Amino acid sequence: MLIKIARPGDCRENEVTDEDIFLNRRQLLKQMGFVGAGALLANSPGAAAINLFGDDNEKRFQTRDLEYTPGSESAEVLTPKAKVISHNNFYEFGTDKRDPKENAQEFKVNPWQVRIDGLVEEPMTLGYDDLFTRFELQERIYRLRCVEAWSMVIPWIGFELKSLLQQVKPLSSAKYVAFETLYDPEQMPGQRNPFVGGGIDYPYVEGLRLDEAMHSLTLLSVGLYGKTLPPQNGAPIRLVVPWKYGFKSIKSIVRIRLVESSPPTTWNLLAPNEYGFYANVNPQVDHPRWSQARERRITKGGLLSNNRIDTQLFNGYDEVASLYQGMDLRRQY
Ligand code: MTE
């Protein structure tokens, strides 16, 4: 059987053309007179429930407002929520950027279980409510740069993966962390039909070295823009590793396994010459089929208002550089 394998690079420019009203929640709160809005949100339980970004999609999908500790102010322009939730890669729901929003609305995320096991002293299973109550939720405004040379700036809500790993107590033999997405062909058309799912051998899998997983920037996200994640963004829980290309940020996770050696990863299995295990954002290492030197930052408007900017090493998160000291990042891409 001949299957057309869609690559994350097969992205068309005209997929991001809709005009949206851009609202930066923080700017808006300030304009409304909430000086020091961060402190206000942190201290009053109801405050995070202000829904400035409601839309039809949220009404159809079960969402709840999250209480969290807002992070530091970002000097960058946030990508409008309407774009964050409508321009997605989630091949289980189709390979076109518009497919996940279209096809994931009935995706059932509660009940949900995440199993954390492997080389750990205390394996654990988290239920849906645990995802929102057992760890300290924070808002983190992160840039996420896709291997396709576009990027967004998103206010994620989540907790540090480190805080979960510390609870299960990795054994000294654990060197890597393997992640797995739900396998449920009944709910995920791309898993039923290889023409819909891009020929990927599901479930989608990803991995990190243990020190990468333990880095305080590495987030398990359960929400964005003050709400639980929409299904197309990886509900109820997904990874966000902001210094790596977006495909490392695996969605709808059901299993996290501590292992001894480098685990298989979906895009590396599919095209090893194009996608390595590390996948650190690096403007000096081109993808075999296109340059990675620049990126299109998706902001408020149509094509002309999307900025083209230089891509930065590690997506600008210089604090991770020490993790890769002594490595040849051209070979270990
Ligand atoms: N996780 C799963 N399970 N399936 C996918 O197809 N796509 C990856 C990543 N996580 C993907 C996934 C890719 S290629 C990117 S760029 C990001 O999710 C996109 O995240 P976003 O749609 O929330 O922007």
Concise synopsis of the structure shown:
This protein has helices at 25-31, 37-43, 56-60, 81-84, 99-103, 130-133, 161-168, 189-192, 194-197, 210-213, 266-270, and strands spanning 113-118, 124-127, 138-145, 150-160, 176-181, 205-209, 219-224, 227-228, 238-240, 253-259, 294-297, 307-310. The protein is of the alpha+beta class and 333 residues long. The site of ligand MTE has 17 residues, from loops.
Description:
With 333 residues, this protein is of the alpha+beta class. The protein has a single domain (13-324), classed as Oxidoreductase, molybdopterin-binding domain (Sulfite Oxidase, Chain A, domain 2). It has eleven helices and twelve strands. The chain has helices at 25-31, 37-43, 56-60, 81-84, 99-103, 130-133, 161-168, 189-192, 194-197, 210-213, 266-270, and strands at residues 113-118, 124-127, 138-145, 150-160, 176-181, 205-209, 219-224, 227-228, 238-240, 253-259, 294-297, 307-310. Strands 3, 4, 7, 8, 9, 11 and 12 form a seven-stranded mixed beta sheet that branches. The longest helix is centred in the middle third of the chain and has 8 residues, at 161-168. The radius of gyration is 19 Å and the shape is globular. The two termini are 31 Å apart. The relative contact order is 0.17. Ligand MTE is lined by residues 8, 88-92, 146, 181, 204, 233-234, 246-247, 249-252. Residues 8, 88-92, 146, 181, 204, 233-234, 246-247, 249-252 line the site of ligand MTE.
Look at the structure and give the CATH class: Alpha Beta
Q: Radius of gyration, Cα only, in angstroms? A: 19 Å
CATH topology: Sulfite Oxidase, Chain A, domain 2
Query: What ions, cofactors and ligands are bound?
Result: ligand MTE
SSE series: HHHHHEEHEEHEHHEHEEEEHEE
Helix percent band? 10-25%
